[in-house]
Description:
The chain is α/β, with parallel strands linked by helices. Helix content is about 40%, strand content about 15%. The strands form 4 sheets. Strands 16, 17, 18, 19, 20 and 21 form a 6-stranded mixed β-sheet that branches. Helix 17 (about 455-465) crosses helix 19 (about 505-515). The N and C termini lie far apart (about 115 Å). Mean pLDDT is about 85; it is low at about 730-740.
Amino acid sequence: GDILVFLPGEREIREAADHLRAHLSHSPLLRGAEVLPLFARLSQAEQERVFEAHSGRRIVLATNVAETSLTVPGIRYVVDAGTARVKRYSYRNKVEQLQVEAVAQSAANQRAGRCGRVAAGVCIRLYDEQDYLQRPKFTDPEILRSSLAAVILRMKALKLGDVEAFPFIEPPLGRAIADGYQLLQELGAVDDAKQLTALGRQLAKLPLDPRVGRMILAGRDHQCLAEMLIIAAALSVQDPRDRPQEAQGAADNAHKKFADDKSEFLSSLKIWKWFDEAIEHKKSNRQLQEHCRENFLSQLRLREWRDVHSQLFTLVREQGWRVNELPATYEQLHLALLTGLLGNVGYKAEDEPHYLGARGIKFHLWPGSSLGKRAGRWVVAGELVDTSRLFARTLANIQPEWLEKVGGHLLRKSYGDPRWEKRSGQVSAYERATLYGLVVYSQRRIDYGKINPEEAREIFIRSALVEGDFDTRAPFFAHNQKLIREIENLEHKSRRQDVLVDEELIAAFYDNVLPNDICNAVGFEQWLKQASRDNPKVLYLSRDDLMRHEAAGVTTDLFPKVMRHAGIEMALTYHFEPGSMRDGVTLAVPLYALNQVSAPRCEWLVPGMLKEKAHLLLKSLPQKLRRHCVPLPEYAAGFCDRIHAAKKFGQGPLLDALIADVREKTGVMVKLADFKLETLSAHHFMNFKVIDEHGRQLDMGRNLAALQAEFGAQAREQFQKIAEQVVPVAEASRAPFTFRTPA
């Protein structure tokens, strides 16, 4: 009699067949036996060989398709490996799994019943009896192994109440129900309250898998319904392409004419068109069958495909939907496909062998894919199947921007780096969107005021109004900024940073006045125009608003804006930033006047800084000399008073004046070498900024001698040119004149 061997899958069957064919000649009992595989993906002709009459012994290697679906005649022996590939839906990864599992007792008994149907038979189980007894009585019901989206959709449409409360014979798990709702939300069939949407009610009228039904609805909306009906029917039947083991190369060559380098969905359309043309040109069914066999296509499956398409087309016509007459574009068709396959999208990073899919899964392209290396960075798969590893079948290249069009309701958006942009007059941020963990786009500049108006308003107030980074002609803004600069200048002169109020108080002033919806320049200008009619000074700050206290002693006499020297007026600027090159007082020296600047005069700095410098110079003296001048602060103040009273400020070297004063007041003889100038900070020495005739800085430093040595020759040339132009005019007018230089 014949032998029927149950193996879990196609790969195991092919390996066993190769092994048996290689060893049959060594077995006296099995010499000359015929080995026949039997599984669903075989061509129709190969499957029918099992039922043909024969004289010798046969060894049939089958999956569980031979368990209940059909009866193989003449079987006297059954060898049961005790395993099968069971289709289960993974609620975590949202993919179909075909994993090898031990069969239940009922399936094992069913396999044993395949032998002895016409005579006594023997079943050999390749597992022990204890293993058999520990297995479950029955295979898990399908409701526990499948996605429940279709069940939930149908129950919602029939108003059968909550799925959780329905009295199923085998109640599904809670996570399975949650997964079903999640898929329906992805498809737009239910809302956040788990109620059917208008689209969901339309979807429930289609007797199809919800994913496929969603594609058909999208095909109607994207003017590609004709193509989508063909593809939807193809997804509902078995692939019509045959690939016999003994003619794999020929089959692959025959199928190349149907391949598309961008989308395997388009391959289905090419096969459909080919079969339509074949029907038109072939007069008899025999000719058509032979033509299909030559091209390694199953006529039976093609007929089944056409039957399903006919049913779908009739259903569409009953709904009154219009089928497009013009061919759909690639984008139209794949936008429609994406509506039902958003969970099957994948992205391939450079140098990675796999694609990163939704929810962190990783999948590989199906080995038989026609795209192969031509698959792009972004792909969508018709299905994801977990066998030896996770594979994607029926692939197509897509553009990431299509995901935003189709799956905008599923994108998770995050925002970073909100900032004020003066040029656009708004608070902008970078937007990043992900679909099930896949980054669809990033670094997209958006108006942050539309996303978070409260935070955008705060940034607008601080950056535009408080920090002054604002392009506006409003009078209040110029007034406030000028007032702030004046007070900051007082801080630099007095070398203290507690005169101007904290920025928080200035921000609080604007916050109290501005309405809550103002967060950009356009809205602000519109509001200000209206508010200024009622109160023109609505945003004006006063000096009292901006100052914590008066900067005592900061006057123009003590901290002048210019220094007159040798008939030349040079600008003075003040800056308080210890460690900076600009710290202290800076004299803007025009190049032509560089050689006229007196180093002894600049030792005195300005009157407001003399007391501190004199104090520190006295402090640098040795103890035996310094003790005659204590208390040092009072002596330094007295020295300044005496200098100003005698009108000797700036006359001669400062150290000489201080030595003479000490000798006069204390009788102590102090020498220049007794002062330790290195103990003084940088701001106790004049800073010189050399500028050209256009006010551009040539160099800056505190060593006047070094600057004069470097630019002295150029300075003499420029001074000579200016003198030649100015002196004749002065002689003609007999009037005094003064050079003035910019800051």
